[in-house]
């Protein structure tokens, strides 16, 4: 799969590419499925022992060492220097107030790599922060979370009785994930309903990122669950099958898709648009970058409908925005999640790629995404052209009015 490192959630040239600065992956992902001296120079800051200078990027460690000395002199217990260091780094990162800029332990690195490869362990749910509440982005079909009835938009108020209001996403994820056959209790608050406690048994989970079929009326249907390692190959195969079969329109379903690799969003978009801007990256450095469609797509002339909802985030929002702004797709469903920031993952213990990173790492927000027409995804999200709600009654009854509308729109456009 082509990977293009362009200061975003992308990757370039090959699966094992990495930069000399220790960047092993750049991913655009809304959330983690289950998880997911000091290296100040790696963060663009300077270390100073003594009073703070006028340079706002200079860090004064006087009090740090003072507190460290007091602890070693007075604390009545054992002190683990490594845990102190990790805690201090995590605290420094958390002080930025960005839920997507996080310090990742070695295990969290493995969890992130497993997430993007489709190998998961836990209950099968993506979570994120929405309006300062820990929120279910999407349960994965067929997993313990889906079987327990969790839905996109559910607020997780407590994990095993512990309030989540002050937890980061990674803290909550670490409490929710666990070994197969162990249990976790979640307190769920759903708008308009009373809070309820749900006990879920964890399991090992492997989820293909893409499934496809041809629906009645010669409408191709592609469901993308995440933009992972196998997404581009699977979508290309589906597109080839659709082209050979003569489909008259295509529906791309990215509801409850939390995102993933940027190159996946670019390549998938390119199957349906022969040219044009896919997305623009803007950062405070002013080094803005534009990613354009790659020629050679197999379905650049058939009508496209994209299904989105509040669980569609990051890479799925980029793809939906690209196809919509270039006049290649009608959007049906509900407003997307609104996660348009770019994370770069820096390996702190070597110059390795992805799951080969040994030890801890830093996932840091480095820029933000804008659609071809300049929509700030983080601030505005992606709004549908045709809004269709999916109610609790619909869900419980197995109805899908959003897909029904998408099929209606696709057939109408195919017959024009």
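Sequence proposed for the structure above (416 residues):
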């Amino acid at each position: 799969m082509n990977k293009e490192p362009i200061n975003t959630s992308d990757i370039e040239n090959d699966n094992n590419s990495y930069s000399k600065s220790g960047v092993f992956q750049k991913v655009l992902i809304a959330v983690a499925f289950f998880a997911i001296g000091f290296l100040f120079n790696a963060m663009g800051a300077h270390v100073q022992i003594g009073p703070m200078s006028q340079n706002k990027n200079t860090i004064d460690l006087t009090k740090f060492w003072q507190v460290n000395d007091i602890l070693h002199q007075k604390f009545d217990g054992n002190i683990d220097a490594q845990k102190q260091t990790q805690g201090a780094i995590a605290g420094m990162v958390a002080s930025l107030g960005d839920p997507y800029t996080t310090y990742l332990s070695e295990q969290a690195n493995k969890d992130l790599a497993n997430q993007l490869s489709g190998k998961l362990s836990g209950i099968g749910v993506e979570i994120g922060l929405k309006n300062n509440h820990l929120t279910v982005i999407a349960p994965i079909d067929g997993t313990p979370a889906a079987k327990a009835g969790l839905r996109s938009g559910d607020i997780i108020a407590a994990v095993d009785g512990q309030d989540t209001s002050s937890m980061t996403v990674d803290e909550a994820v670490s409490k929710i994930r666990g070994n197969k056959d162990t249990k976790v209790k979640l307190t769920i608050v759903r708008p308009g309903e009373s809070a309820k406690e749900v006990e879920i048994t964890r399991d090992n989970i492997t989820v293909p990122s893409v499934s496809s079929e041809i629906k009645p009326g010669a409408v191709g249907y592609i469901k993308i669950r995440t933009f992972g390692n196998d997404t581009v190959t699977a979508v290309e195969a589906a597109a080839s099958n659709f082209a050979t079969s003569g489909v008259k329109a295509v529906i791309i379903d990215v509801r409850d898709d939390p995102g993933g690799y940027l190159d996946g969003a670019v390549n998938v978009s390119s199957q349906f648009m022969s040219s044009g801007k896919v997305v623009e990256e803007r950062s405070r450095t002013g080094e803005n970058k534009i990613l354009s469609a790659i020629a050679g797509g197999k379905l650049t002339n058939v009508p496209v409908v994209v299904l989105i909802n509040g669980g569609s985030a990051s890479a799925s929002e980029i793809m939906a925005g690209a196809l919509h702004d270039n006049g290649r797709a009608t959007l049906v469903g509900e407003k997307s999640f609104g996660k348009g920031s770019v994370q770069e993952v820096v390996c702190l213990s070597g110059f390795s790629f992805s799951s080969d990173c040994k030890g801890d790492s830093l996932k840091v927000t480095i820029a933000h995404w804008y659609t071809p027409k300049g929509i700030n995804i983080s601030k505005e999200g992606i709004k549908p052209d045709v809004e269709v709600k999916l109610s609790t009654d619909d869900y419980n009854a197995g109805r899908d009015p959003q897909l029904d509308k998408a099929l209606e729109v696709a057939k109408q456009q195919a017959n024009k």
